[in-house]
Amino acid sequence: MENLVVAASSYAKDIDNLIWIVAILGGFWFFLAEGVLFYFLIKFRHKEGQKAQYLVGESKEELKWITRPHHAILICDLVIVFMAIQVWYNIKQQLPPADETIQVVGHQWSWRFIHPGLDHQLGTADDVEVVDELHVRVDKTYHFKLEAADVLHCFSIPAFRLKQDAIPGRVITGWFKPTKTGEYDLQCAEMCGIGHGIMQSKLYVETDEQHDEWLKKQMPQQQI
Amino acid sequence: MGASHSHAGNHSSGSHHGPGHYVKIWAILLVLLVLSILGPEIGVKWITIVSAFGIAFVKAYIVVQEFMHLKNERRVVHYALATSLIAMGMFVAGIYADVGRTAGENWKNQAAQSLIDKHAAEGHNSSAPH
Amino acid sequence: MGAQIPIATTRSATGVPTGRLAVWWVIASEIVIFGGILVAYILGRLMNDYWGADAANTNVLAGSVNTFVLLTSSLFVVLAHQAAENKETDKAFRYIWLTILGGLIFLVIKSFEWSYEIHHGMTITSSRFWSFYYTAAGIHGLHVIAGMIIMGIISFDVKKGKFLHRVENIGIYWHFVDIVWIFLFPLLYIAK
Amino acid sequence: MSSAHHDHHESFFSKYLFSTDHKIIGMQYMFTGMFMALIGGYFAYVFRMQLAFPGQDIPGYGLLTSAAYNTMVTNHGTIMIFWVAMPVLIAALGNFLIPLMIGCDDMVFPRLNRLSYQIFLISAIVLIASFFVKGGGFGGAWTAYPPLSAKAEYNLTPWGSTLWVIAVALEFVAFLLGGINFITTVMNSRAPGMKWMDIPIVVWMIVIASILFMLSVGPLIAGAVMLVFDQLIGTAFFEPARGGDPILWQHMFWFFGHPEVYVVLLPAMGIVADVMAVHGRKKVFGYKMVLGTAIGTGILSFFVWAHHQFVAGIDPRMANLFTITTLLISIPVGEMCFVYIATLYGASIRYTTAMLFAVAFLVEFLIGGVTGIFLGASGSDVHFHDTYFVVAHFHYTFFPIAIIATFAAIYHWFPKMFGRMMNETWGKIHFWGTIITFNGIFLPLFINGLAGQHRRIFSYEHFNDLTKFQGIRVFATVNLVTLLAFQVPFLINFFTSMFKGQKAGDNPWKAASLEWQCPSPPPHGNFAKMPEVYRGPYEYSVPGRSTDFWPQNERT
């Protein structure tokens, strides 16, 4: 996981762990089933003068070979359900208090990001509105207010393991907390027309200093 | 498809009623119709609901049982109709949380809400410009 | 109709004649089609009280008369079915055409109603209530027309005493169309 | 329905184009499906080439614009599911097999059956027409989410999108008619003595699938009407600014869209059961349990649809419910796979091409099933949603269903369809060529998905985090081209065997079910003498009998 795509948000690890759990539980049953299957395929190939067995498979005695593993699978499922809901709850349902709030608006075919200015408040005069560039401070909890101007878009940052559709007419709130500085891809993940393929933005996770620097650059009028 | 058909299996059992029976049913339906029209005139919301939709269900039930002869139809048919009704129930249950409300956990449907507020403000007939 | 009947069609393992069984399945699938649009409408209606203001402009009288017409046509078609069972083909023929007449009256009233509303600016695009009003009633109207055409076709076989069982099958379908209207009526007209 | 001239010295026209014979109609469905599969395959070739060699001239197409790319991705999905999987698995096999397997001479409503095919044909023509109209074909993904699909100024395909919706709606109508026909036929017209538990599993599966389809498609048909009105008249059913709700469409779509998965899965499972029983010379293990799991799957499939919408803006609390139901469905499906594996225990397996494909179905489908758990678990779906992981996952379910199981069926029932055998050597070449390259395409794509590479992206050159995976994309594309190349021997084998293959005889596989107890190809009316049934369809290797199969219609 890590060496495929960096885990740059606080909950990226949780999702990766969940993926591992599923991989282990699912993988166990998968390899068991395939193993048995291939063993049968080789062992029971046609040999001259050897008749197949006549098994009805209605009696308890025979069916236990099916029912037992499937009870075991049920338990694995419950484990996965429990883990999945836990992760889901932390990502989508329960938002930790925000240090800053940004507004994200999807357009055909670009992202518009409204950053709070130096006053850390959204909706004030020094808000910074940028297209296709999102700048955030590392180790700060962000809430995002997600909107779409025309059609469905999907606000997706693989490095954060974050994905949320933007729906015109609705405002959807979510959160993330960057943990690694750097520059990451930010994509639209919902088919949104012929420009969908080029609707990608850059995400810059910066230290406070870098971020303030950048903010100042955005509003020359304030430096006077 | 198939004239040799009426003698395949049982044929419908409408036959052991005279026309009188059906006319009686029809009269009952008309009475219910009148009730369902008068109900809302009282202007009490719950009476409207009951008289309009409660009676609709009663009427539908009577038509299905008496005119469509579901009451002497084989069980398998009941199952077929029941499953499709249950499917619809599932559909409502599944979509209500998103489609039936203007806000939920961490989302709100601003467009719909603003329309509701707008009309509440105007407080009069919105669509028909007479 | 030259096709000779397959043996398959004449079998009836369930005890329900094949044609009637098929009609029941048609109805089962129609329930979900109408169900889909009605569910969408009801949820919208419950969420947006202001639709009631639009609903107030519907013509309750026309709706009531149409309900009466359809209920009556249902009576006729069930009487036709009964006549067919007693092999009274002429009577069945007459009742079938009375049913078709009922459908016709229904459509005429509907067209007057609609043209009035459209002239007064209540078109399918005026608001979502009117969109649902025309769409749901329109789909229902298509079913009425289909029923009338089928009845027209089979009525002549019936007169000749052929395919009498079809009277019951089309009857069941017609009653279903009636029931759909029984629900559309309060949903679109009465509830304010 | 035009008049059906129905005597036995018919003109070619009335025999092959306006026939009401269930076998001919089955063939019509099969060949139409195969033709559409060629189109779908060609689309896959074009957009895979674009992904591997972005912006370069594609042999056999030319330069691909992003609009054309979207059109091809969209219609590849639409065609493969609605115009290949459904017509071939359900309509073609259902029409051909049901009357033969339950021992009657035709469908109960032959002319309704013909009408269903004619509507289906029209739908296919409308779809193909939609590629050539002004503005090009619809490119808003096969889910057709509004507002993109609802307004021309968003999707820029004013005619394509409307024609697309109409085509899909017509196709639904065709399958409703066909489904009603199948269900009624099996319920009413079984051969005397054939009890519910004597029906071959493949027939059961097609019937259950038809019922699932019938019960789930309704809202989407209503939705299609609403969507067309949004496109053409300007209603606002799905337009947020005027109070409409895009989420409503998503629900209408997936309420059908998920059961649809099982609508095609179950017939495939049925085919595999029958083929395994015949070529394994073995009774299907736990017939009742197979049925139970199939019905259980069908019921559960109505409770899981919103797992396609976890991050699509549904209320997060609902996602939890749907996670639970989604993981629960892994139990009946997993159980079914176990039963099939158990069927092989103590079998005597003949590795004919048909059997190879049937077994390959199990092997590959298990991968698809297991990877589904990653997506059903809401937590991990946040990362995987709309990535190539999803693409790889559902190709590991749909390819086994629509391609591998279909090949198993074709190699198995070809002798009955045309009275001649297909060439086994070429069959085996085709088998290995298909299976190996198939895994070559989609196993690597799981890695792309894990890395967060999104679907439906025209070119990944701009994505710094993803450029390093270009090698994988090229590898997948090379495999795809090879896979397509390996279909040529199949087509040659298919059409030459049709006329030159060695004569098959009535029952080349020594099978017990009814369709093999009549001449091949079956004449009009199928059975010289309508059969009576005395036992179940899977009486193989019964102890104390000289032959290792016991036909359903043999009294002793």
Q: How would you sum up this structure, described in words?
A:
The complex is a heterotetramer of chains A (224), B (130), C (192) and D (556). With 224 residues, chain A is an alpha+beta fold. Chain A is 34% helix and 27% strand. Chain A has two domains: 12-93, no CATH class; 100-223, Cupredoxins -  blue copper proteins (Immunoglobulin-like, Sandwich), CATH 2.60.40. In chain A, the strands form two sheets. Chain A has a five-stranded mixed beta sheet. Chain A has a five-stranded mixed beta sheet with strand order 4-10-9-6-7. Chain B has 130 residues and is mainly alpha-helical. Chain B has two domains: 13-73; 75-121, no CATH class. With 192 residues, chain C is mainly alpha-helical. Chain C has a single domain (17-190), classed as Four Helix Bundle (Hemerythrin (Met), subunit A) (Up-down Bundle), CATH 1.20.120.80. Helix content of chain C is 80%, strand content 0%. Chain C has seven helices and no strands. In chain C, helix 4 runs antiparallel to helix 5. Chains C and D meet through helix 1, helix 2 and helix 6 of C and helix 6 and helix 7 of D. Strand 8 of chain A pairs antiparallel with strand 2 (107-109) of chain B, so a sheet runs across the interface.
Note the main attributes of this structure.
heterotetramer; B: 130 residues; mainly alpha; 2 domains; two-stranded antiparallel ribbon; 4 helices; 65% helix; 4% strand; flat; D: 16 helices; globular; disordered N terminus
Describe what is shown at a glance.
The complex is a heterotetramer of chains A (224), B (130), C (192) and D (556). By secondary structure, chain B is mainly α. Chain B has helices spanning 19-41, 45-67, 75-99, 110-122, and strands at residues 103-104, 107-109.
| Secondary-structure element series of chain A | HHEEEEEEEEEEH
Provide a count of the helices of chain A. 3
The CATH superfamily of the largest domain in chain A is Cupredoxins -  blue copper proteins
**Uncertain segments of chain A of ≥5 residues (pLDDT<50)?**
none
In CATH terms, the superfamily of chain C is Cytochrome c oxidase, subunit III, four-helix bundle
CATH second-level architecture of chain C? Up-down Bundle
DSSP strand count of chain C: 0
What is the residue-mean pLDDT of chain A, rounded to a whole number? Answer: 91
Question: Do you know the CATH topology of the largest domain in chain A?
Answer: Immunoglobulin-like
Q: Percent range for helical residues of chain A? A: 25-40%
Major beta-sheet overview of chain A: 5 strands, mixed
Structural class of chain C: mainly alpha
Distance between the termini of chain A: 48 Å
Q: What is the rounded distance between the termini of chain C?
A: 50 Å
Low-confidence stretches of chain C: none
N-to-C order of helices and strands of chain C: HHHHHHH
According to CATH, the fold-level topology of chain C is Four Helix Bundle (Hemerythrin (Met), subunit A)
- Largest binding interface between chains: A-D, 88 and 98 residues
What shape does the CA trace of chain A take?
elongated
